[in-house]
Design brief:
Layout: E1 2-7, H1 11-23, E2 26-32, H2 36-46, E3 50-52, H3 55-60, E4 66-69, H4 73-85, E5 89-93, H5 100-112, E6 117-120, H6 127-135, E7 142-150, H7 156-160, H8 176-192, E8 197-204, E9 210-219, E10 222-229, E11 238-242, E12 245-250, E13 257-262, E14 268-269, H9 279-292, H10 299-317
Parallel strand pairs: 1-2, 1-4, 2-3, 4-5, 5-6, 7-10
Antiparallel strand pairs: 7-11, 8-9, 9-10, 11-12, 12-13, 13-14
Helix pairs in contact: 1-9, 4-5, 5-10, 8-10
GO molecular function: nucleotide binding
Protein name: Oxidoreductase
Pfam families: GFO_IDH_MocA, GFO_IDH_MocA_C3
């Protein structure tokens, strides 16, 4: 049983814990929060025996095997670095770090300490993503793809009212691209790798982060358009178009439903039923890595490519973070 500790007491942490416990591979043993009372309430809910408000004490505790980090983006690097240097394996929410330089450094630290570092990007591990990969040859020569994730932020009204929520604050390495743009970006990178060239645009808020944006990725005679937004909702699915057919994907981040449209013939819903909590699959994937002690696992290559693209896109659109001074 993997002895798990968490950093962060929010809804995404709860969702991951539920998924981890459902996999029957983990036992939650510790909770960290800057507010010890908050940590205790969270720990009581899951019967975790230990609570911490000191990260070094958590990192030093021998009763903890793995740390799950779901703190603001700008804190990922320093917190993961501390844990790795104390011999803890780390599962970290996307994006792994604020920029490519930090990602390279963190992976190097993990390997030096013979620890596993794992970016918890759920899309890669849901069964329907693998199904999409297997269907691509049936589409014939690929020509177009629209990868779409636009979701109006529950924090946007607060921002418009003059507050400074984390979602739109560069101090936390946030914004549309880093929050939800990572999903369509990684979806495409996982299927087709780094584009030959790309062109990014965005609309920046006064705070300095992007409200929404687009990225056009070119793979010679195949174009992939990425849409992302934190200030609008979208009600259309994503689509991959080939000369012989197309795939339509609902809720791209989890590939909820996938429909195959052959150029000639009837449409077919090809997706399979997945777990309601899609984080179940990433929890299982990490458990396999942990059991096999795979330090240099295949996910690292994808994480590096994603981090490189996110950093290069931000340079194009003019978004900088205090964390970039690393």
């Amino acid at each position: 049983m993997i002895k798990l500790a968490i950093i962060g007491t929010n809804w995404i942490t709860e969702k991951f814990i539920d998924a981890a416990l459902k996999s029957k591979q983990y036992q939650l043993v510790a909770v960290y929060s800057r507010d010890l009372t908050k940590a205790q309430v969270f720990a009581d809910k899951y019967r975790a025996k230990m609570v911490f408000d000191d990260l070094t004490q958590l990192a030093s505790d021998r009763n903890v095997d793995v740390i799950y980090i779901a703190s603001p983006n700008s804190l990922h690097f320093s917190q993961a670095k501390l844990m790795l240097e104390h011999g803890k394996d780390v599962i970290c929410e996307k994006p792994l770090t604020s920029n490519y330089q930090q990602t390279q450094a963190l992976i190097k630290i993990a390997k030096q300490n013979q620890c596993i570092i794992f970016e918890a990007l759920k899309t890669f591990y849901v069964p329907n993503y693998e199904l999409i990969k297997s269907y691509l040859p049936q589409l014939g020569k690929l020509r177009k793809a629209l990868l779409n994730y636009c979701q109006y932020s529950s924090r946007y009204e607060s921002y418009l009212n003059g507050h400074n929520p984390n979602t739109f604050n560069p101090e936390f390495s946030n914004g549309s691209l880093m929050d939800i743009g990572v999903y369509p970006l990684n979806f495409g990178l996982g299927l087709w790798g780094k584009p030959n060239q790309f062109y990014a645009t965005s609309s920046l808020l006064a705070s300095g982060v992007d409200a929404h944006g687009s990225v056009l990725c070119n793979y010679e005679d195949f174009d992939v358009i990425i849409w992302h937004s934190k200030v609008t909702n979208s009600y259309i699915p994503s689509e991959i178009q080939g000369e012989d057919g197309a795939l339509v994907i609902d809720h791209l981040s989890v590939c909820e439903q996938v429909t195959y449209y052959p150029r000639q013939g009837e449409k077919q819903i090809i997706s399979i039923q997945q777990q309601d909590n899609e984080m179940y699959y990433e929890a299982l994937e990490f458990a396999k890595l942990y059991q096999q002690r795979k330090i240099d696992h295949k996910g690292l290559e994808q994480t590096l490519l994603s981090s490189l693209m996110l950093t290069e896109i931000r340079k194009q659109i003019g978004v900088q973070y205090p964390a970039d001074d690393f």
